[in-house]
Design a protein that fits this description.
This protein folds into 3 domains: about 350 residues, Glycosidases (TIM Barrel); about 45 residues, Oligo-1,6-glucosidase, Domain 2 (Oligo-1,6-glucosidase, domain 2, Alpha-Beta Complex), CATH 3.90.400; about 60 residues, Immunoglobulin-like. Helices cover about 25% and strands about 15% of the residues. The strands form 4 sheets. An 8-stranded parallel beta sheet has the order 9-8-7-3-2-1-11-10. It has a 5-stranded antiparallel beta sheet with strand order 12-13-14-18-16, covered by helices on one side. Strands 4-6-5 form a 3-stranded antiparallel beta sheet, with no helix packed on it. Helix 5 packs parallel to helix 6 and helix 11 runs parallel beside helix 15. The chain is globular and about 75 Å long. The structure holds 1-deoxynojirimycin.
Length: about 500
């Protein structure tokens, strides 16, 4: 069987606003991404995923799209996008773009027409509300001038589409074609389990991302992805789609990953697992038992960075664990998604001043929740402030970077063998050499308490989540470790790749 490129791909998420600013306005842009393609190539990833760069009033960092077929001037032009795709391909990098089908911006012409009382059938308008809450806090309904309410599962500036209207369906097929015709290799589908709501919009008891709920995961959504798959199959070059699907079991996740539906789905169970060998093992077993094409992810632009999640009072422990988790993830069968900055070991920035915060989660929770700005702080490329090379000249970036970013900058880490950046480069290069030579399956080996050993043919991965050093399992050579080994001992918070002939 020919192995599709995405099965084992390493995809690097670029949160465009925070990656690199070429224009000098303090906000990242497409030209900034283009300038950094050699860095990404050198890092050793296979593909990039660009978060939304479409025209948007930025009520939710661009996940509120006002025009699905354009580029916001903040991020550049359509010509910039086209040259980015072309140059990415020249560097051997595939390009995925984010598609946001659950909701548009309230500035979208369809919603503007709806506000004027025209064609409300493309959104969800009602005379009375139900008890649904916005994921960001507060009611999921906002009243318009004539007294009707519209549904928004996220910010009020993100009205939900009515997917029971075939016009919405046709519009999105056309949007996908627009980007496929511009050479994109695939799509990341935002809120992929949210498009349909249960008929009659019944009240809910618990609105968390449950597989069985009137809000999420309605069976009708699968027909959408069947149509999208047919469209993707009609294009040359193995175009693909990965869904942002939150479910409470791997079996439910697998419903989206089928030969006639999505190619992949994010596996948030891995990211939600605490630092625990039993939790890790359970997620790995459940995933491999149900999901035909597995994916793994530790961080993204919506969650606390994993260095901080795993960190205890000692930030060094967080980094050691983050590196060990990465090595373990890269040894698993399937594809892995990295989030910009994790290769530098960036922590969550927890002390942003309230005035700097921009995430609607902060505002809709009336400041009770910090929101997601702390994982979106612009990347430090160089040592020197004011922007650590993020913006040219003396421009301040859109979110302030802490002074500690100097030490974590690319400039500081490049060429330093012990740095997290060089560790990522090495791990990705090793994985690239290994991936075609080892089986897609995984076998558990006996291991002491607090520790996991698994093998894939000649490769064994060992991770020590316990408190004591343990003996490495049988091996011929040590390929790589996430931290220093002590002779034959694997210290706590450390992982290693071992080879046996
Ligand atoms: C998921 C995206 O990743 C997140 O950033 C966004 O706020 C919501 N979907 C709503 O579009």
């Amino acid at each position: 069987m020919d192995i599709p490129w995405w099965r084992d791909a390493i995809v690097y998420e670029i949160y465009v606003r925070s990656f690199a600013d070429a224009s000098g306005d303090g906000v990242g842009d497409l030209a900034g991404v283009r300038e950094r393609l050699p860095y990404l190539r050198r890092l050793g990833v296979d593909a990039i995923w660009l978060t939304p760069f479409y025209p948007s009033p930025m009520a939710d960092g661009g996940y509120d799209v006002a025009n699905y077929r354009g580029v916001d001037p903040l991020f550049g032009t359509l010509a910039d996008f086209e040259s980015l795709v072309e140059q990415a391909h020249e560097h051997g990098l595939r390009v995925l773009v984010d598609i946001v089908p659950n909701h548009s911006s309230s500035e979208h012409p369809w919603f503007q027409a709806a506000l004027r009382g025209e064609r409300r059938d493309r959104y969800i308008f009602r005379d009375t509300t139900n008890n649904w809450q916005s994921t960001f806090g507060g009611p999921a309904w906002t009243k318009v001038a004539d007294g009707q309410y519209y549904l928004h599962l996220f910010a009020p500036g993100q009205p939900d589409f009515n997917w029971r209207n075939p016009e919405v369906h046709a519009e999105f097929l056309d949007i996908l074609r627009f980007w496929l015709d511009r050479g994109v290799d695939g799509f990341r589908i935002d809120v992929a389990m949210g498009l349909y709501k249960a008929e009659g919009l019944p009240d809910v008891g618990d609105q968390s991302f449950k597989s069985v709920s009137p809000v999420w995961g309605q069976p009708e959504v699968h027909n959408v992805y069947r149509d999208w798959r047919r469209l993707l199959n009609g294009y040359p070059g193995e175009r693909m789609a990965v869904g942002e699907v939150w479910t409470d079991s791997s079996e439910d996740l697998a419903l989206y990953v089928r030969p006639d539906e999505l190619h992949q789905s994010f596996n948030f169970a891995w990211l939600q697992a605490p630092w625990s060998p039993t939790a890790f093992k359970k997620v790995i077993d459940d995933t491999l038992a149900s999901v035909p094409f597995a994916t793994w992810v530790l961080s993204n632009h919506d969650v606390v960075r994993h260095r901080t999640r795993y960190g205890t009072a000692d930030p060094g422990t967080g980094l050691a664990r983050a590196r060990a988790a990465l090595l373990t993830m890269l040894a698993l069968p399937g594809s892995a998604y990295l989030y910009q900055g994790e290769e530098l070991g960036l922590p969550e920035v927890t002390d942003l001043p309230d005035e700097a915060r921009q995430d609607p989660v902060f505002f809709q929770s009336k400041g009770k929740l910090p929101g997601r700005d702390g994982c979106r702080v612009p990347i430090p490329w160089t040592v020197d402030p004011p922007s650590h090379g993020f913006s040219p000249g003396g421009v301040e970036p859109w979110l302030p970077q802490p002074a500690t970013f100097a030490e974590l900058s690319v400039e500081k880490q490049e060429g330093d063998a012990g740095s997290t950046l060089e560790f990522y480069r090495q791990a990705l290069a090793c994985r690239r050499d290994l991936v075609g030579t080892i089986p897609y399956t995984l076998e558990w080996l006996d291991s002491p308490e607090g520790v996991l050993f698994f093998s894939r043919g000649p490769l064994t991965c060992a991770i020590n989540c316990g408190l004591q050093p343990v003996h490495l399992p049988e091996h011929d050579t040590v390929l790589l470790s996430s931290g220093p080994l002590k002779g034959d001992l694997l210290p706590p918070d450390t992982a290693a790749w071992l080879m046996t002939s």
